[in-house]
Amino acid sequence: MWERWNSYSSRHGFGDANMNSFNHYAYGAIGEWMYETVGGISPAEPGFRKIRFAPVPGVGIDWAKASLLTRHGTASIRWRKSSGGRLAVDLVVPPNTTAILELPGQEPRELPPGRHAMAMQLWTLLCCFS
Predict the structure, then answer these.
(1) What is the per-residue pLDDT across 56-78, written as a single tens digit (0 to 9) for each?
(2) Is pLDDT of 80 > 50?
(3) What is the Cα–Cα distance from 44 to 10, expressed in whole angstroms?
(4) Domains of the chain: which residue ranges?
(5) How many angstroms separate the CA atoms of 84 and 73, rounded?
(6) I need a labelling partner for 62 at 20 to 30 A (CA). Which of 50, 77, 104, 125 fits?
(7) Looking at domain 26-129, what is its CATH homologous superfamily?
(8) In whole angstroms, how large is the CA radius of gyration of the chain?
């Protein structure tokens, strides 16, 4: 994550080299929050041998999708709140890993490698995220 939002543009190329850190903590922290909270992807064990999927579908955010290339393959998630009051979640657990799915108001469940799709009624989330 670059130090400035405008560090590079296709029209102007790179900005001033004195202000172009390619590993800036402040914006990296924003990226980490987006992956771990909005998208919900984080390591449950070192090296992503076990992956935690725990998206937080908060107020004002109706959908999100995120993917992360791990040493075992791509972990991905897509979730959407529907107007009918449901939460749909689609995710991919890479080969040679397992995952823990933690959704608000639900018991955590362990998932094997592969694609998984589920839907649930949103009323179980209202206590925590309205």
Answers:
(1) 887 788 899 999 999 999 999 99
(2) yes
(3) 38
(4) 26-129
(5) 34
(6) 50
(7) Maltose phosphorylase, domain 3 (2.60.420.10)
(8) 17
Ramachandran category for residue 17: left, alpha or beta (phi over 0 → left; psi -120 to 50 → alpha): alpha
pLDDT band at 44 (very low <50, low <70, confident <90, very high): very high
pLDDT of 121 = 81
Distances (CA, A) of 23 to 19, 28, 38, 74, 120: 11, 7, 22, 22, 39
Band of pLDDT at residue 83, cut at 50, 70 and 90: confident
Of 110, 50, 107, 38, nearest to 77 (Cα)? 38
Q: Please compute, for residue 128, the number of CA atoms within 13 A of its CA located in the half-sphere on the CB side.
A: 11
What whole-number distance in Å separates Cα of residue 61 and Cα of residue 20?
31
Query: Which residue in the block uniquely carries the two structure tokens 């670059």?
Result: 2
d(CA 81, CA 104) in angstroms, rounded, equals 13
Dihedral (Cα; 41, 45, 48, 49), 10-degree rounding: -130
How many Å apart are CA 57 and CA 38, to the nearest integer?
7
**Residue 7, pLDDT above cutoff 80:** no
